[in-house]
Amino acid sequence: MNTTLDRAAVDVLLANWTGAYTVPSRALYPHQWSWDSAFVAIGLRHVSARRAQRELESLFGAQWADGRVPHIVFDPAAAPEGYFPGPDFWRSTDHPASPAVATSGLVQPPVHALAAWLTFRADPAQARCRGFLPRLYPRLVAWHRYLATRRGVDDLVAIVHPWESGMDNSPAWDDALCRVEPTPTHGFRRRDLHHVQAAERPTDTDYGRYVRLAGDYRDSGYADRLADAQFVLLDPMVNALYAASESALADIAAEIGADPRPHREAAERTGTALVARLFADGFCHAYDVHERRLDRQRTVAGLTPLVVADLPVAPALVKSALGDHFRLGRTALPPSYDLTGPAFDPDRYWRGPGWFNTTWLVWHGLTQHGELDHAGRLRDATLTAARQAGFREYLHPFTGEGRGATDFSWTAAVVLDLLRTAP
């Protein structure tokens, strides 16, 4: 059974490979996405370590001069009408810091250094022969420097748009988004609804707010003036991945003969600040910088700080994962949002469905903290969900029915990683 699932996962990754990177989905997402490519590399390393290296190298080839890694790198051969907002909306090539290729101006969670280190470990000899880490390391350092300086808030990293969290439609953003006047629906064209039912996607009102924030950020010249931005939040997953990736950068630095101490110190500072600022009532929450308060909605992002090594509140997070809000091991996949929460919707994008990539992060975190029994059960449930639903974008958390895009790359990638690395 696992052989069949393994082969099917490989087939999805090969089918979505473009020659330089892997698209998330041929129909709905026809370009390169930042954190998607990081998860793809984590799975692809088991099939071809060289191709996994190329996945990350391709993404960082579109890095801006200021260090940011854009959340979308556009394929010039793709139909312009195939995705909105497209290159004409972002107008990135008008910016002096942008690369020659068209990109967005937003970012996504910084899981890339962790992915790079895992990719290296898959075939160290080949990676050394290609100079993979020495070439990628300065780009990773510049990426983290951008986050720390341009987005830094008291040793944590801020996001200026829900899309930057990766969890675009999370209820954790609802209060902050209420301050944003949405762009009228006649001001944009939604391409996602051509491929997925409206009941599974953000509402037009929420999408109008996303477009407004993105347009305002573009019109500011992507300036990162946090005091002027309408939406500035500290997300627990973004910061957990920043800390975990700083730890990975320490390992990378040691491998190539650089000094690992600055990265270890940065990881420790971020982990400490994450607990001090975002942890309350046994859980990690988003923090609204302008309002100076925690948003008490519980989302799966609040469990992902388990990826941070030596996290002192890890036992409390495990307890929260097992409790009634997430019911770890009692759902098809851990839900993206609190099962008891007022905004829970088992079908709608990031408001309840389970996702394979966040499940992988929770699994990885459990293994980091020695919770091997819980990690093993989560692995088994994830593989069962993939067998039953296929490689869907997300799942109904109770029935396990597939939702969103089909043949989704990061789903195949993390399933492959679970198959190849866990007993």
UniProtKB/TrEMBL annotation:
Name of the featured protein: Mannosylglycerate hydrolase MGH1-like glycoside hydrolase domain-containing protein
Highest taxon of the lineage: Bacteria
Gene3D superfamilies xrefs: 1.50.10.10
Molecular function via GO: Glc3Man9GlcNAc2 oligosaccharide glucosidase activity
Organism, scientific name: Micromonospora echinospora (Micromonospora purpurea)
Family as reported in the entry's similarity comment: Belongs to the glycosyl hydrolase 63 family.
Keyword Glycosyltransferase: no
Mannosylglycerate hydrolase MGH1-like glycoside hydrolase domain ranges (all copies): 29-411
A Pfam family this chain is assigned to: MGH1-like_GH
Lineage: Bacteria, Bacillati, Actinomycetota, Actinomycetes, Micromonosporales
Keywords: Glycosidase, Hydrolase
Gene Ontology BP terms: oligosaccharide metabolic process; protein N-linked glycosylation
